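Fold it.
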Amino acid sequence: MMVARPCTFRLLFNALLLTITLTLNDAARAQFNDDAARTAAELNSLTTEIAAIQARLEASEQERDSLQGALREIDIQISESDLQLDLLTNERAALQRQLDDLDAKGLGIQTEQKKRAEMIDASIQQLWLLHQGGGLRIWLGDQNPQLITRNLAFLQATIADQQIVIKEYEEGLAELTRNRDSIAATQETLQAQAEKQAQLRQRLADQRENQRQILSQIDAQVKTEEERLAALSADRDRLNTLLSELSELAARAPAPPQPFETSKGALQMPVAGEITNRFGSRRNTDMLWRGWLINASVGSPVRAIHPGQVIFSDWLRGQGLLVVIDHGEGWLSLYARNHSLLRRVGERVSASDVIARAGNSGGGEQPGLYFEIRQQGQPVDPADWIRR
């Protein structure tokens, strides 16, 4: 009976190992594709259901008038303009850094060129003096052939070195030209960006003036305290309806890796500022605050208090530009009256991630943030959860 050689066994083993690896890789790829498709389907379903919730809210708001529609549009326009301005500002900062780098590079090239020019001038002067004083004739004159050969070799090497320096000088001139062209192009782009930025700032100013006029007209519609109370009650009911339906969506999500309840008393403030209205304080004769109203300058970063998933990011009457985050197991946090929204529905966020910028959208009198924490749809006191 023939015995297989060791190399044959190794070949067979390697072939078997490769087959197993490829099979496992195929299975892993199939599992990854299935997971990706499932995640995409879940996100699409979430987006569709939230759109349906918004449509039902709008359909049920028979009292919704053209002024509120105009306020919604102008708040969204201000948010978009603000984000464009922020993007443009970052682009200008990057261009300015590029221009600074080009200026520094240009100075370096000029310094090197000056050194090369001095070397060339000194070499030319030495050769000229040798020629004028007969130095070359003496140096290469009545001497033995070996010494003449060495002197000629040295002279040729010196001339070759100078030719290299001259070539480097010429290349430096070309690089200086390219550098100046780049600086000119960057300065031109910077100027164009500055003009765009000025136009955007003017557009923002116009939009804010339109917002102010719309809010004045809305305030004029509310002539009595009863009408104001009715409007506030409608806003509260609208928010409760939204959060109730969002809670049903959130209940289907899997349990989070970091339970919200374990962070009680250790969560950070959602925005830097003074709390002017606290949970449970009286809002008017018949209503209490269900969260915190925090004073903050327009544009202040609003941060997620805990990891979770954005399940609402849009405008809601009475709340302005609103973000709602699902933290799992029935816990939600909401951030209202924002100046601009930075996260979309379906995005996962970590604690401290910037999700919006504070403002006074939706008709807020003072810029800031309205903040709530809810469990199973019921508001809870943020003071029990936020570290102060």
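The chain is about 60% helix and 15% strand.
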